[in-house]
């Protein structure tokens, strides 16, 4: 999208466009009033293949800024957030070209990228804060508008800022922008994170790979997406030890080279399909899925009554009876992922028995509960706990998705509700799920995208 055109870039629009992603067909990205219409009662059965993780690929795209030249990413999902990040990189002076047939994107980075990321794009995409670290390292200055993204509560940046300051940056907030500058090269330092923040770990990794000397990130996040970006940075020439642990040791280098990298599979999309199989008493084989990335969530599903079997490139989830309710407590990886919490509330709402769901990361994620109540669910919240009493059935109703995962949870609930459910604000789901509606239809659901 060139500035002001209101259309996706020609390089994307000219390619084959899957039926489920109408935003990519040359239509305006924003402003269309659409909804998902779901007629409940179908059983999900069949095979589905998952692409690369949204929460990884956006950061990998940002990481490409660290080296002049062309980096190529594979298994790039066809989602709105990737489009926003591509546009952000274009505005920073990069040439971004996507090949839909091979699910790849190539990013050509100039010798000196621009260093300003404006609010009109940044507000749509929380992950745009991830250009802060690489721009600061490469350009000596980064002006990044304070981000928006999911509507899931306050999402501080204090650890990003404190960490960059430890590396020698000066960071100030001015007119809605975070402005980070450095004098010479950033320098290595030990950074203790109060909490294993995914975004702060990524920004500090990308800033420190080009810093002078050794950086230690203590209490670092350990998500598979963090391992993925570490692997890409290593291929670019970054010196990182402790990958996958909570202590990352980075030996800064003078320069990095562009690289080619395949994005880690999206464990949150995989988890959503797994919950869908259990809720609909279905049978789904999920390809390009890593069971080890979802250990706790899969264990919960087995306790709920699921049968999980590994297949060569993923696993199969089946459930024959009404699921049993399971308690869930969200925690940083390897704990239970907050991004699967709404889907598990949906599951518990039709399960046998009662369960407590505890949300420790994003307080506003329980806003979704009000929509579940509209569908007839018995859920009561108290602070960061939600008590869910399973009901025999839900009852279809119009509901609104407030964020990506809430949208996914509502779609799953609609699949098992009696009658018709309309999920408004479906663009949230499009931000994170590649071809979701097409896959649901293939698996047997009665789901369509309608204009309302
Ligand atoms: C990423 C994911 C999101 C996921 C989350 C936790 C992306 C684009 N998003 O979000 O889907 O739910 O990890 O797994 O990858 N915090 C602070 N100060 C900081 C940084 C974070 O207070 O400087 C707080 C946040 O407000 C939040 C918690 O820490 O309550 C977790 O945030 P973080 O791990 O940074 O998540 P994100 O990177 O924003």
TrEMBL record:
The keyword Cytoplasm applies. It is found in: Cytoplasm. Its EC number is 2.5.1.7. Keywords: Cell cycle, Cell division, Cell shape, Cell wall biogenesis/degradation, Cytoplasm, Peptidoglycan synthesis, Transferase. InterPro entries: Enolpyruvate_Tfrase_dom, Enolpyruvate_Tfrase_sf, MurA_subfamily, RNA3'P_cycl/enolpyr_Trfase_a/b, UDP_GlcNAc_COvinyl_MurA. UDP-N-acetyl-alpha-D-glucosamine binds at residues 126, 339, 361. Residues 40-440 form the Enolpyruvate transferase domain. Phosphoenolpyruvate binds at residues 54-55. The keyword Cell division applies. Pathway: Cell wall biogenesis; peptidoglycan biosynthesis. It catalyses: phosphoenolpyruvate + UDP-N-acetyl-alpha-D-glucosamine = UDP-N-acetyl-3-O-(1-carboxyvinyl)-alpha-D-glucosamine + phosphate. One of its GO terms (molecular function) is UDP-N-acetylglucosamine 1-carboxyvinyltransferase activity. The active site is at residue 150. PANTHER family: UDP-N-ACETYLGLUCOSAMINE 1-CARBOXYVINYLTRANSFERASE. NCBIfam families: murA (TIGR01072), PRK09369.1 (NF006873). Cell wall formation. Adds enolpyruvyl to UDP-N-acetylglucosamine. Belongs to the EPSP synthase family. MurA subfamily. This is UDP-N-acetylglucosamine 1-carboxyvinyltransferase. It comes from Longivirga aurantiaca. The lineage of its organism: Bacteria, Bacillati, Actinomycetota, Actinomycetes, Sporichthyales.
């Amino acid at each position: 999208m060139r500035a002001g055109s209101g259309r996706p870039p020609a390089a994307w629009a000219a390619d084959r466009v899957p039926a489920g992603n109408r935003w990519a067909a040359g239509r305006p990205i924003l402003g269309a009033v659409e909804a998902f219409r779901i007629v409940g009662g179908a059983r999900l059965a069949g095979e589905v293949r998952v692409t690369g993780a949204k929460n990884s690929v956006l950061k990998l795209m940002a990481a490409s800024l660290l080296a002049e030249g062309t980096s190529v990413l594979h298994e790039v999902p066809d989602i709105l957030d990737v489009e926003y990040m591509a546009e952000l990189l274009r505005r920073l002076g990069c040439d971004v070209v996507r090949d839909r047939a091979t699910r790849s994107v190539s990013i050509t980075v100039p010798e000196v990228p621009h260093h300003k990321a404006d609010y009109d794009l940044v507000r749509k995409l929380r992950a745009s804060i991830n250009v802060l670290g690489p721009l600061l390292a490469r350009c000596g200055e980064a002006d990044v508008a304070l981000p928006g993204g999911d509507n899931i509560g306050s999402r501080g940046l204090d650890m990003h800022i404190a960490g960059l300051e430890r590396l020698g940056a000066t960071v100030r907030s001015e007119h809605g922008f975070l402005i980070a500058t450095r004098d010479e090269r950033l320098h290595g330092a030990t950074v203790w994170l109060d909490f294993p923040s995914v975004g702060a770990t990524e920004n500090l990794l990308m800033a420190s790979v080009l810093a002078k000397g050794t950086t230690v990130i203590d209490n670092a996040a350990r998500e598979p997406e963090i391992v993925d970006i570490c692997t890409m940075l290593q291929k670019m020439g970054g010196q990182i030890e402790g990958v996958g642990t909570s202590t990352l040791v980075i030996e800064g280098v003078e320069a990095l080279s562009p690289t080619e990298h395949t994005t880690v599979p999206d464990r949150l999309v995989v988890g959503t399909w797994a919950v869908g199989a259990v809720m609909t008493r279905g049978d789904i084989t999920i390809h390009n899925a890593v069971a080890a990335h979802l250990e706790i969530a899969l264990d919960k599903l087995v306790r709920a009554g699921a049968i999980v079997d590994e297949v060569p490139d993923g696993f199969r989830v089946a459930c024959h009876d009404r699921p049993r309710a399971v308690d869930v407590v969200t925690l940083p990886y390897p704990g239970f992922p907050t991004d699967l919490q709404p889907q598990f509330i949906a599951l518990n709402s039709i399960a046998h028995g009662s369960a407590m769901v505890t949300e420790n990361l994003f307080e506003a994620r329980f806003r979704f509960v009000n929509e579940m109540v509209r569908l007839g669910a018995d859920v009561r919240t108290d602070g960061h706990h939600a008590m869910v009493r399973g009901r025999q059935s839900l009852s279809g109703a119009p509901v609104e998705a407030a964020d990506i995962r809430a949208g996914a949870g509502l779609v799953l609930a609609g699949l098992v509700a009696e009658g018709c459910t309309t999920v408004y604000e479906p663009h949230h789901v499009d931000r994170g799920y590649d071809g979701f509606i097409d896959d649901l239809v293939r698996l047997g659901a009665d789901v369509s995208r309608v204009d309302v």
